[in-house]
Specification:
218 residues, 9 helices, 0% strand
């Protein structure tokens, strides 16, 4: 009985901690989401920044060049999608009007035999319903605009954070090799230190970290 009660208490404690963590995450989501976007963009663009830094570029210049190149690439993709769509707007409008006219001619013939007066009455009733629902439509449009604005702000913050992650991120990366050396015996720590020093000297990296960390810090 005591074991069952203890297990139940531990499960309840875990569920309570999970609920609190989710509640805190929900409250901090406007702050956490741009960080997540910035980390994703940094993961995408880090190979290019690392390539430039390995070839002697300063971290700030490499981060700035990669950020500008990323923005130009995104702008080019949006332009490639938007320009063809905008050029086909007139054709789409003409096609819609032609389709409405054909539907009207079909409805006027047998077996429906709907005359213009009935069509006009249906249009008037539809317009009246639309006017009655203007309030809800405005609310939906305002909600959509707010969502778009939040997305734009999140994207801007993500790019801003991406630049600083590319510039200064490697300074704050945790070193798994250092953690491993702290947990290893003294003899293993000395061998690891000698190996990392030789690897760093051979690769041209001035850092004391191992080759895996050197890839991120150089």
């Amino acid at each position: 009985m005591r074991t069952t009660a203890r297990v139940s208490a531990e499960l309840l404690l875990i569920l309570a901690m999970l609920a609190v963590a989710l509640w805190v995450l929900g409250r901090m989501w406007p702050i956490v989401w741009p960080l997540i976007v910035g980390l994703l963009l940094t993961t995408l663009t880090w190979p290019a920044a690392r390539f430039l830094r390995r070839h002697g570029w300063p971290p700030a210049l490499a981060a700035a060049v990669v950020t500008v190149a990323f923005l130009l690439a995104v702008t080019g993709i949006v332009a490639l999608i938007a320009v063809p769509m905008s050029s086909q707007t007139d054709e789409l409008t003409d096609g819609v009007l032609e389709g409405i006219e054909r539907l009207r001619e079909w409805a006027a013939g047998p077996p429906l035999n709907i005359d213009d007066a009935q069509v006009t009455g249906a249009l008037d009733s539809a317009m009246a319903r639309i006017q009655d629902s203007v309030g809800s439509m405005v609310t939906a449009v305002a909600s959509g605009v707010g969502t778009v604005v939040n997305g734009v702000v999140t994207a801007v913050l993500g790019v801003f954070l991406m630049f600083f992650f590319l510039k200064d991120g490697p300074r704050f990366l945790p070193s798994p090799c250092a953690a491993g050396r702290r947990l290893a015996p003294s003899s293993a720590r000395r061998r690891s230190s000698d190996c990392s020093t030789r690897s760093s000297s051979a690769s041209g990296c001035g850092s004391w970290t191992c080759p895996w960390c050197c890839r991120w810090r150089c």
